[in-house]
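SAMPLE LOG
Freezer: B-3
Tube label: C17
Construct: single chain, 328 aa
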Amino acid sequence: QIFFVGELITINKTHEPELYWALRGAGGGLFVIVTEFKIRLVKSPPLVRRFSSTWYPNVTKLVMQRYQSLLFDDKISNFSNNLFLFMRVLKTHVAISILYFGIEFDEFNNTISSLLATLPTPNRTKLYEQDWLTFVYKLSGIANGSGDHQLLLLDRLTYPTYHFKAKHLFYDRPISSHNLDKFIDRLASGDGEITMIFLPWDGYLSTIPVDETAFPHRHFKFGIQFQVSSNDEQHEKEQMNWLNQVYLAVYNDSTKHSYVNYIDRDVPNWMNVYHHTHQQRLINIQHMYDKNNRFYFEKTIEESNGGNQHIFLNFHLASFVFVVFFIV
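STRUCTURE (predicted):
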């Protein structure tokens, strides 16, 4: 039983449209408490095909350069929305994977041929097919090996505590040769494991107008996720410093913007970094629905980066707006 002071409202394109706009892309934990989502489902593909190629670190720079060339070559990178091409870079190896959600083998095969024609011979390749649910469960790390999807859906799964730090940057140009050298040197210098995932940021995403939702970063070419994990408190500071050094090696080639999902306390000027051209509109909406800034946190929506550090007092006296949120 929940007792609250406030109102329960439904929002969509016609009811509370500004709040509806903000909740789609400005990050969680802001503006209101969402009690229910209604979403429109899309049809899942019958099969997912995945092709991956792996190289040893002696060709990391070349593979990274060729991958970026693919993304910036309109003749090659004009992939259909059924294709997703991503790259993982570690100090031990670099791997490029193609995910295909369509049904035409020719499209998949032609993409693999175009990819391999531009790259050195891989040390290892792998090709496999999975049904949609198996793909989702394995990708999320919860597959139990039995293939019993119903059991997985019913299980209340728990996992050991996992500590990690992730950073993110968007790019609209390739990383320079000089900075790639710095990046690779710094990646090789640390103890532990940092993973970089290069994700294309184009295709269908860029066909949606920038102002359609609160998410503004639709026209960049790719993004990089930088992640380090450590369960060893003794070496945590060293790991964080290593991550920052790798990140800074390629920072100047980036747009300096980031996906809001990667809330990072080291980022200055976060309102611009995360929200870009939508800053003022989000500030106006925040003032409209949360005048007293009750939903304050370290990188919240605010006028400037320095103020409002004391707002969370008297939280128990707050009245909340509860919403039923329709995604249409």
